[in-house]
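Researcher: Let's do a round of design. I'm pasting the structure tokens now; please hold your answer until I've finished.
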């Protein structure tokens, strides 16, 4: 994505990677893009103050959707959009997520995985817990 955005004025991408070797690889691979791409060697839980405000959050194979929404909530609850690739069990992940979250959802069929989708999530809001539950 950083390469695709390289010629878009003002566009930047922040990559968060907790594994040091993977973070170093990303730094090396993206070296020619300068300020367009920043790699943050950090856990996602620690990234919101480092990364700051964003327009779009993406993740692939990071966590089931209920946990992923929690991890991305600092950005999504502030107005960012999520684009999450999910496999064949995505419907059960959506159902489980609705116990704690409200959100607007559009499902886009994956072009690379016939059983997968891209979940386009906006307007994330945590549900208020009901006393006694």
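Researcher: That's everything. Go ahead.
Model: Designed sequence:
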């Amino acid at each position: 994505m950083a390469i695709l955005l390289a010629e878009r004025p003002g566009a930047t991408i922040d990559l968060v990677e907790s594994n040091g070797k993977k973070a170093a690889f990303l730094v090396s691979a993206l070296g020619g893009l300068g300020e367009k791409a920043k790699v943050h060697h950090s856990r996602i839980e620690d990234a919101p103050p480092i990364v700051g405000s964003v327009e779009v959050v993406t993740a692939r194979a990071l966590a089931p959707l209920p946990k992923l929404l929690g991890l991305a909530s600092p950005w999504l609850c502030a107005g960012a959009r999520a684009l999450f690739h999910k496999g064949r069990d995505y419907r059960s992940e959506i159902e489980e997520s609705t116990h704690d979250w409200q959100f607007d959802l559009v499902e886009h069929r994956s072009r690379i995985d016939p059983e997968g989708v891209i979940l386009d999530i906006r307007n994330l809001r945590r549900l208020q817990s009901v006393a006694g539950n």
